[in-house]
């Protein structure tokens, strides 16, 4: 797949480069026409820092943030985002005057949950959700439901890439959007035109990476 790869560049910061591989891919919720390679963005300090700085500009200093809920292995970006928000003067309402970096987990039913020892980082906290890629918004909705169940207040949603502009009435603050990836498509598996023409899947993908078939 790698020989088909091309790059797209973030508006306003060409040093942020998203690697894109066209093909036929299956996510847990849909089939997509492009795989978005984000590994170095998540793991290299330089790239993670630039993404965090880019995303932080969307938050006003009047927006309180106590916790950043990280999905898709984005804890490094989350830590840099917390640092950028603190430098910008974003308020933290918790007693320690600092921002928690929190990772939920999925239970056997596919629901997001927070263990007892970290629930206090969500309950009565102002929360920003941070994701790698949002395609249908289904995983994001589950995350929102979980945060509300545990008593958190959602102040914003950020992502490296989002195929949608809003989910559950909340604007998505992303570095890249669907319009930035030429011909990007996402459909339910039952409606996938590539499946209907007999095109084989290249890989199964999720927020952590891909597994070739």
UniProtKB/TrEMBL annotation:
One of its GO terms (molecular function) is glycosyltransferase activity. It comes from the Bacteria. Keywords: Glycosyltransferase, Transferase. This is Phosphoribosyltransferase. It comes from Blautia caccae.
